[in-house]
Design goal:
Number of helices: 2
Strand order of the largest sheet: 1-4-5
Order of helices and strands: EHEEHEE
Radius of gyration: 13 Å
Helix content: 10-25%
Structural class: mainly beta
Organism: Alteromonas marina
Distance between the termini: 11 Å
Number of strands: 5
Protein name: Topoisomerase II
């Protein structure tokens, strides 16, 4: 788990997408997707951060993304 500093922004996402919906993550002209966090904020997420979690069933689970003050992603991880 990544250490969170006081200046970091933390976003939580619950994802339950079948494989068919995940195919868009592999389209070269689509480097990012916009997701709505559990707090209701729209957040741009690079597709390469999501691809590692795609299985034959799709993507399922709760995820946390930590962003530093320079808007750089420190981590994107599945929780539990």
């Amino acid at each position: 788990m990544t250490t969170i500093s006081q200046t970091d922004s933390v976003f939580y996402f619950s994802i339950n997408a079948p494989y068919k919906q995940c195919e868009v993550l592999y389209v070269p002209s689509m480097p990012d997707v916009v997701m709505v966090s559990e707090s209701g904020l729209s957040v741009q997420v690079p597709t390469n951060r999501l691809r590692q979690f795609v299985t034959s069933d799709g993507i399922k689970g709760r995820f946390r993304m930590i962003i530093d003050t320079n808007k750089k992603i420190k981590s994107f991880e599945r929780l539990g």
